[in-house]
Fold this sequence. Notes:
By secondary structure, the chain is an alpha+beta fold. The chain has helices at residues 7-19, 65-69, 90-95, 100-103, 142-156, and strands at 29-33, 36-43, 46-52, 57-58, 75-78, 82-86, 110-116, 124-130, 135-138, 160-165, 171-178, 181-186.
Amino acid sequence: MEVDLCGHATLASAHILWENGILNQNEQARFHTRSGLLTAERKDEWIELDFPALPDKKVAAPKTLSKIMGAKPRYVGKSSMDYIVEVESEKTVRKMTPNLSQLAKLPFRGLIVTAPATSKPYDFVSRFFAPRAGIDEDPATGSSHCCLGPYWQKKLGKNEFLAQQLSARGGVIRVRVYDNRVKISGEAVTVLRAELRE
């Protein structure tokens, strides 16, 4: 399905525009999307994306959520796109094996599961499951950090974070929250080139 906000696509598109010389290395990439204007800038080896903040509001958990997750939520909230669930520990996030077929039946795009980090130097950890959108588990998710940033800003009382996404591939994401925006930084490499023929 087409999603309203996608960190992967924004990061990769900006990377290719600079790598192929379509934009100068110090030139800002600007994308007009269903989520409004998104920008990307090079910051050394990192690419910094400027995305809208998607803060959550506390909600009652769907009745089946604990069973589907296989873990007890400490907190359940909902952003405009996803549910966010804080669980007791990083270990719980790592070991979680949700029932994806049942999760796909719930009426939201995805499930963000998070906990404070115990692994240094990270501030918090997360995983993102979106079987309803065709992605059982996303390796590294920009849009989920638009919710995670404001959430941990309230919990930890600071604006800048180093986050780790605990998928099998894993991901490291820098997060900076300001006003109603979230700066999300990641890295990109080109792994494949192809030519389309008519």
